[in-house]
Amino acid sequence: MVHLSSLYLPIVLSAVAVFVVSSLVHMVLKWHQKDYGKVEDEDGLREALRNAGVKPGNYAFPYPADTKDMGSPEMIAKYNEGPVGFMNIMPSGPPAMGKSLGLWFVYTLIVSVFVAYLTGRTVGGGSDYLAVFRVAGATAFLVYGISN
């Protein structure tokens, strides 16, 4: 068993490494660039949302009042008529990249602490590199893979 306090350097280094690699993947490889498409009448849609008084938040449309309403003939007609979707409305103004990147780095630190904790509890000190890497790598892969 390895104490978490003795793993502070690997925790910070792994968080920094994940932060740098993920930044490169998103900026150089443009990993999520094709995740979103442009709305044909973007200005018209924005104006309609402003006029409707839509506040920042997450929305679904059409929106059923409850699960029973989902199967009603009216809702089925709305679903068939379309469009059907989920919408995330953010506050007006430029994106706060500094805050987002800061929160992402804090998240990588938290993940690194948990990976170090689990690895330190399951693999003894002085263990073979591959045994340590197997546990730490699988744990990190599961956390980052499932969280997205």
Features:
about 150 residues; mainly alpha; two-stranded antiparallel ribbon; 6 helices; 2 strands; elongated
Explained architecture:
- The chain is mostly helical and 148 residues long.
- The protein is elongated and about 65 Å long.
- It is 59% helix and 7% strand.
- The model has no long low-confidence stretch (mean pLDDT 92).
- A two-stranded antiparallel sheet has the order 1-2.
- α1 packs across α5.
Secondary-structure-based class equals: mainly alpha
Helicity, as a percent range:
55-70%
Quaternary state, please? single chain
* Outline: elongated
Question: How many helical elements?
Answer: 6
Report the sheet with the most strands, covering strand number, pairing sense and barrel closure: 2 strands, antiparallel
Number of strands: 2
N-to-C terminal Cα separation, in Å?
31 Å
What is the N-to-C succession of helices and strands? HHEHHEHH
Give the integer mean of the pLDDT values.
Answer: 92
What strand line-up does the widest sheet have? 1-2
List the helices and strands and how they pair.
Layout: H1 8-27, H2 42-51, E1 57-61, H3 67-70, H4 73-81, E2 85-89, H5 97-122, H6 129-147
Antiparallel strand pairs: 1-2
Helix pairs in contact: 1-5, 5-6
Compact summary:
By secondary structure, the protein is mostly helical. It is built from six helices and two strands. The protein has a two-stranded antiparallel sheet.
